[in-house]
Amino acid sequence: MIPRTLALFAHPDDETFGPGATLAALGEHGPSALLCCTRGEAGSIDQSAKIGKSKLAKIREEELLAASDILGFDSVEILNLPDSGLRWLDPETIVLPFVRAIRSFKPHIVLTFHENGISRHRDHRTVTRRVGEAVTLAADGNAFAYLGKPHQVGRVWWYSIPDSKAAQFENYRSLASVPDADIQVTIDLRSHVQKKWAAVDAHATQKLFVENMAKFLGERMENYWAFESFVLAQGEPPSTDGRVESLYEGLEEAAT
Questions:
Q1: For the chain, which residues make up each domain, given as ranges?
Q2: How far apart are CA 155 and CA 135, in angstroms?
Q3: Which of 6, 89, 105, 207 is most buried (most C-beta within 10 Å)?
Q4: Entry's Pfam families (predicted)?
Q5: Is 211 helix (H, G, I), strand (E, B) or coil?
Q6: Tens of pLDDT along 169-196?
C-alpha cells in the first residue's frame, strides 16, 4: 500500500507549527494533500496587524505555498473563507469542500488539530468538528453523490499536546492539552525537524511566535519540536490496547 495523507486545517502555518515534521515524513512515503480554510488575513503576530488584511492574505498565501513545497505536499487548496469567522458559517460551507477533497484524493488518513484547538482558537475547533462530519459523510453513498464516489478514510488523527509537554509552557502560554495517557502515538521526528524549521522560516510573518517559544524553552526546544503526538479520533486502532507505533500501522493489512 502506498499511503495517502490529507491534512485539513484552518490557517496558513497550522500545518507547519503543528504536525509539520510528521507531514514532511509522510510525504516521503506517499502522496499528501493540504486543504486550508482561510488565507490568514486576521493574523496578529509581529507586524501582521499593521499590514492590512488584503495584503496580509496575499502574503500568507504565498508563505503557505512555500512551506507546503518544503513539507512535500503534492497539492494545496485554499478555500478563502473568513479568518476567525469559521464558526459563523453554515456547516456545509466547510463540510462540502472537505467531503469533495476526501472523495477525490482518497486518503488513508486525515490529520487535523485536536478538538480542543491546541491554542483554543475557535477556527481550529470548528475545523475539527467539520472534519469529523465530513469523514462520516464522505463514506455515505447516499450523501452528496455529486461530490464523487464514497470513500472510507482509514483513520483520523488529531495532532495533540500532552499535558507533560504543555507544562513546560505554564509560565509562558496556556495551551489546551490532553492527558499523556490519552496519547496513542508519539513520533520521533528528529530526522525531519530541519524541514519543519525551514517551513517555519517560510511563514515569515508568523515565525516570531516560534522564535519566542524557542527562546523561552532554550535547550528544551529540540525535544519539544522533534516529537509530535496524536490522538485517534476516528477509525479502528490495530492493537487491543489502542496504542500504535505509526499512523498507518495495520492499514496495510486492511488494504490487502
A1: 5-255
A2: 9
A3: 6
A4: PIG-L (PF02585)
A5: helix
A6: 877 888 999 999 999 999 999 999 999 9
Give me the residue label for grid cell 464522505: 138
| Phi/psi at 42 (5° precision) | -95, 10
End-to-end CA distance of the chain: 8
Distance (Å, whole) CA 64 – CA 23? 14
> What 8-state DSSP symbol labels residue 132?
H
DSSP state of 238: S
Distance CA 153, CA 169 (A): 34
The SS3 of residue 80 is strand
Angle, helices 91-105/122-138, rounded to nearest 10 degrees: 50
199 burial (CB, 10 Å; 0-12 / 13-18 / 19+) is: buried
* Amino acid code (one letter) for 45: I
Mean pLDDT of 32-43: 97
Domain 5-255: CATH class, spelled out:
alpha beta
Q: Model pTM?
A: 0.96
Pairing verdict, β 109-113 and 32-38: unpaired
What count of other Cβ atoms lies within 10 Å of the Cβ of residue 245? 13
Phi, psi (deg, nearest 5) at residue 188: -80, 110
- Alpha carbon of residue 54 to chain centroid: 24
- The 10s digit of each residue's pLDDT in 108-129 is 999 999 999 999 999 999 999 9
* C-alpha cell, 244: 500504535
pLDDT of residue 231: 96
DSSP notation for 133-191: HHHHHHT-TTS-GGG-S----SEEEEEE-BHHHHGGGTTT-----B-GGG--EEEE-TT
- Whether 253 shows a pLDDT value over 70: the answer reads no
